[in-house]
């Protein structure tokens, strides 16, 4: 079939990357989103960890890391292709510090062993040198107890320097939206909520996309990259979701300081979970999972809760600060020096359920995401920000040849 027109539903990192990749292959793309601009949802408001698999230390296998690695190791290359510039200056500078809480679902010994196994896996990967820093020989280093006592609270029982980096997602969102706008083969249909996609009953195998106003349009190919809004449209397309799955809405703090701070990027895992990202000395992401998890459920689509504003936002920030400060006392200075701070967040969709504090929870393993197809309808579970541009390249090649 000659692909002339493709509808890409959803202008997050997945849909925006796909629109660019397809347009550069000469395909006419209609990119549809309910927001007034691309990159306004989860892909803007997350911490941008380009996962190497270490966060999934409670996965008893290496399945998560194996699934994530090929895409994450190529994130920097793909980002440069998409936005036309490198990520220098917009990526955390040092290794992440993984702090193990005394209530973690993984013991320090098990964590040590897991990290060794994952490092070996990474070293064997042919693209290990292409990550945001060369990780082809990088090791996880355990932090000695005296240094740990200086940087962390009493509930932290072990610490490791892990060669992972995170991208400033707001910066990247603006660049990716700009790259979409520069593509003449992409028509953006914004402020438009998709309500259905179904096959047209004709021999060409074309698909119809309907919006909430009842307007319909025909396409040779439809790609559903709606993330938290994906499943209801899959149902209309005859792609029936297979349980288990869960939606979680997480709130976080995005803060800019007046002066530079050298607070390290660190996270508390696995079980009790929170993190701090220091992108450039002044722009920070701060989260405490139990405070930020404000909605969760297993329905087809979960209503986004209202974002806290005014006094509610202040209360939320105070909770995040108090929880993190007990474990990472340096966080207080960053909050005290805030020039601006906002509470934002987004949905996490997972083909799994459970609670992080349960060692047997399915959420500790994340290797089931990818693309499902029905004729020329493609439903993309992005899974991770880290791997979206890589998934996009493969899918665009498949569709456009
Ligand atoms: C707090 C938080 C932290 C995270 N941290 C990380 C991390 O460190 N590393 C990582 O790899 N991943 C992380 N993630 C996950 C990551 O954010 C997502 O995997 C990724 O952003 C999903 O991209 P997407 O393009 O599929 O979705 P989105 O960016 O949400 O884009 C989907 C788009 O679809 C639109 N839409 C939805 N329904 C409809 C409809 N019916 N009609 C029209 N438009 C619709 C939305 O407006 C949105 O623009 C995190 C997520 C959260 C919330």
Radius of gyration, in angstroms, nearest whole number: 21 Å
Mean pLDDT across residues? 95
CATH class of the largest domain: Alpha Beta
User: Which ions and ligands are bound to the chains?
Assistant: flavin-adenine dinucleotide
Give the second-level CATH assignment, the architecture of the largest domain. Answer: 2-Layer Sandwich
Q: Tell me the total number of β-strands.
A: 18
Number of helices: 11
Poorly predicted ranges: none
Termini separation comes to: 10 Å
**Count of discrete domains:** 2
Sheet with the most strands?
A: 9 strands, mixed
Query: What is the CATH topology descriptor of the largest domain?
Result: D-Amino Acid Oxidase, Chain A, domain 2
Shape: globular
Order of helices and strands: EHEHHEHEHEHEEEEEHEEEEHEHHEEEH
Q: Name the beta content range.
A: 25-35%
Helix proportion: 25-40%
What oligomeric state is this? single chain
CATH superfamily of the largest domain: D-Amino Acid Oxidase, subunit A, domain 2
Give the structural class. alpha/beta
